[in-house]
Amino acid sequence: MSDDNPTAPANDNASGDPLANTAWNLPAVLLKCAAIAVVIGVPWLYPNWFLLGSLGWVALIMFAARRRRLTATAGSFLIGMISLGIAFHWAPKSISSTTNLSETMSHVVFLGLVAWESLAFAMLGYSASALSQPPTTAEADSSRGRSWLWLLVPIWVAIEFFHPQIFGWSLAHTVLAYLPLIQIAEVTGTSGVAFLVMLATVSLARLGLHHECRRDWIEFGMGASLIASACIAGQWRASQWQDLAGQADSIRVAAVQVDPSKMGSVSEMQRMSRSAQTPIDLYIWPESSLGHYHISLENFRDEVQTAMNSEAPNPAIDPFPGVPSELLAGGKTYDDGGRDQGPYKNTAFLIDSTKSIRSRYVKRSLLPIGEYVPGETWFPFLRDWAALDSTLLRGADDAPLTLAGNQKVGVLVCYEDMVAENSAATTREGAECLIALINGSRFTDVDTLQQHLWLAQLRAVENRRSLVRCAATGVSCLVQPDGAITDRLTPQQSGMIVASVPLLRTQTIYTRYGDWFVYLATAIAMIGVIVMKANRRRRADRQPANSN
């Protein structure tokens, strides 16, 4: 029986799977997988090619749907390996430069990470095969047997959410260049955008697989209509939020992009900040701009006292002499006994014009490998491999920081702008805008910095808050409440953004209820699979009687 036969038995075994037994078509299968992977992976580097990427996902589903489960699973896994390898090609170099691993071992670790992420592709391929290939000829002859492929949409939402990820990617991030489609995130979060993208993908894949009867076209029309409705509503919502942001109260910020690892960086940030022509309500410097201070330090007015309560060498005994308003900048704090050895807390300091530390924010989510290693408690040597010479402690307070004018800003540090729950939590606590302080100076590839921004872009839409990104080497920018990126600086170059940031107070459905949509989609997927199995079992039981 041919591997491309859609009525092939769902039972896979070593003797029946074409991948194992039909050697002559293995090169063709591998070539198909490679071509599909390239089409899926390239838009990660060039977001405006998102339509091309969508066609790649259509091809993946059609590839898996036409094959038995083992072939579909293995082929989809390979597609994931290649596409993610293209998308995150910068990772081996970053692993090598930030750990004690050799270049060879960095590539090995990268392959392991990509293999783990590719399990999501493998599960998608397995599901596409299982849903599209009926166990009986009777069901294959019925158009009802084709409808089960729609379950792939909620199944993918569940896979994406519950499968632990390293790179934090989502199908939703492939369509960020088309703003109307991402507006649904204010209701559903990132998963709702992924739902729409997968719905479009499955609609096209089903039409490619089945277009013989009227029902096939009706179902395609229903899927297309739902997506079109979401886009029309999204365009309206984006326009509405643009108007609301334009009418809202605002603060004037100056976000400085300077690499704090370079000699004289504090002086450079001071010089740039002073160059702002208009009155500024809040100056923003990146993560790690300041030094390491004892948690008891209350102000920077006495340089001797500051020196006694900080580690040497300290680049910022007096961070910004004569600051006319307030400064938000990143550093670290330690407790009694922690000087020169930690543990530390990655901290954002809000400093007023009298040099008093008005308040602090402590980073809540630590970066895997960069700040801790999963399993390090059982295998301490992993910390040596990761070149972690100090311990960081997590913060637990979601509350925003309050400026002198009573404006409330939600602070995110490092990669926290990729963590949806952190932004939602601080918005629930009253944040009127979001500010992310990012270092990232150890990542020299521009693609790395660009992708970090793309992974963070949906935080603005989910919570309908402006997001100011102040990154040491990029990408510093202002993300508007509709997801549009404005006032953007060039990566790897020093510069400063001066912008008015709207302050909004309305809370979205996603802000209030979080990932409710994921659990609904998961329940639909589970119920659908149970119904499908029961339906197929009944058809299988009736088949002998019908054949007689």
By DSSP (H or I, 4+ residues per run), the number of helices equals: 20
Radius of gyration: 26 Å
The proportion of strand residues reads: 5-15%
Task: Give the % helix.
Answer: 40-55%
Structural class: alpha/beta
In whole angstroms, how far apart are the ends? 24 Å
How does the overall form come out from the CA principal axes? globular
List the uncertain runs: 1-24, 136-145
- Summed over residues and divided by their number, the pLDDT gives a mean of 89
The total beta strand count reads: 13
The largest β sheet comes out as: 7 strands, mixed
Descriptive report:
With 548 residues, the protein is of the alpha/beta class. It contains 20 helices and 13 strands. The strands form 2 sheets. Strands 1, 2, 3, 4, 5, 6 and 13 form a 7-stranded mixed sheet that branches. A 6-stranded mixed sheet has the order 7-8-9-10-11-12, with helices on one face. Helix 2 (26-41) packs antiparallel against helix 3 (50-65). It is globular.
